[in-house]
Amino acid sequence: TALECMTHPERIHREPDADDTPNESGVYYGDIVPPRYVINTMGDYMDKLIAQSKQPYSIGNREIPVPNELITRIFAATITSVLCKYTVVETGDDLLRTALALRIHRARTGKYPASLAELVTAKLLPAVPQDPFAAPGTALTYRVTPNDTYTLYSVAPDGKDNNGRGIVGKNAKGEETRYVSTESIGDMVAGWYAY
């Protein structure tokens, strides 16, 4: 029945006839499930994603359950990790911008600043850079090390301070990668990644 198809679209399956064209199986779904239902389901899901995207990552990174409607599920598979990817790029930009300001400060004064606030005072940054992965109002983590270098990092998608330990993973070939994904554990450390 149509109600069954709407609540359990994964059960819709029809073996194509010998004379079927490849597009006919897609038409079959549309013949059973009302297009208005598909549009409303996808629209409601997209509205939730849009509202979520306006939240900081630490608040808005909760997975929104994908409705059990076939067309929506197909499109949802391509957009679920977009927020993480956007925040990774934003964080990389913030780390790079801050690292460049630190370098200029050191060139001018001969030492790294004690805090990121000094970069604002020196007019190298407009404000203390915030960590896009942390709770709102949390700055990037920065500390000067005893050997006159520094550690600058974001808590990354796991939201935990791993004391500046960079994210390391393995690809399908078993090679080390520094790719950041929603499942990554570790911190996004300035200089650790190729942005």
Oligomer: single chain
Share of β-strand residues: 5-15%
- Total number of distinct structural domains: 2
Mean pLDDT: 83
Class by alpha and beta content: mainly alpha
Query: How many DSSP E strands?
Result: 5
- Regions with little confidence, pLDDT below 50 for 5+ residues: none
SSE run: HHHHHHHEEEEE
From the alpha carbons, calculate the radius of gyration and give it in angstroms.
24 Å
Q: How would a crystallographer describe the biggest sheet? A: 3 strands, antiparallel
Helix content: 40-55%
Shape: elongated
Order of strands in the sheet with most strands = 1-2-5
Distance between the termini: 52 Å
Total number of helices: 7
Q: What labels would you give this structure?
A:
mainly alpha; single chain; 195 residues
Verbal overview:
With 195 residues, the chain is mainly α. The protein has 2 domains: 2-80, no CATH class; 83-189, no CATH class. Helices cover 40% and strands 8% of the residues. It has 7 helices and 5 strands; from the N terminus they run H-H-H-H-H-H-H-E-E-E-E-E. The protein has helices at 2-7, 24-32, 35-53, 57-60, 70-76, 82-109, 117-121, and strands spanning 141-144, 150-154, 169-170, 176-177, 188-189. The chain has a 3-stranded antiparallel beta sheet, with helices on one face. A hairpin with a 5-residue loop joins strand 1 (141-144) and strand 2 (150-154). The longest helix is centred in the middle third of the chain and has 28 residues, at 82-109. It is elongated.
